[in-house]
Design goal:
Radius of gyration: 24 Å
Order of helices and strands: HHEHHEH
Number of strands: 2
Shape: elongated
Helix content: 40-55%
Structural class: mainly alpha
Strand content: 5-15%
Oligomer: single chain
Length: 118
């Protein structure tokens, strides 16, 4: 008499795992911080610490500000200054995020560059 648990037959009849059907995965554009890690000199590489700023939120603000620095458009500079002000008004602090002091220092530098370009 063999001892087989109930349901063992159902598990053994699973379809073999093979290549998945469907569309290929989509590759996202690297974030500014990821680009910095691969040699983009304009984007800082912040340390990830406990109780830091939300990485996505910081990446978005920095991307807006750095794009405005690259463009001579006054409206883009105004949008970037507003994005930095909005971030400073309500920064999102998460369990693991970018070092707050490093982010603040870089935002001060970007604000000074943007103020000079207006």
């Amino acid at each position: 008499m063999s001892l087989v648990r109930a349901g063992a037959d159902r598990r053994s009849r699973r379809a073999p795992v093979g290549p998945r059907d469907g569309p290929p995965c989509q590759v996202r554009e690297p974030t500014p911080v990821a680009r910095r890690a691969y040699g983009d000199p304009m984007t800082p590489l912040f340390q990830v610490v406990l109780r830091g700023y939300d990485r996505r939120q910081v990446d978005q603000v920095i991307e807006i500000a750095e794009n405005a620095v690259d463009q001579p458009d006054v409206a883009a500079s105004a949008r970037a200054v507003q994005a930095i002000a909005d971030f400073r008004a309500k920064p999102l602090v998460v369990l693991r995020g970018y070092d707050r002091e490093q982010v603040e220092q870089h935002l001060l530098q970007l604000s000074a560059v943007l103020a000079g370009s207006r």
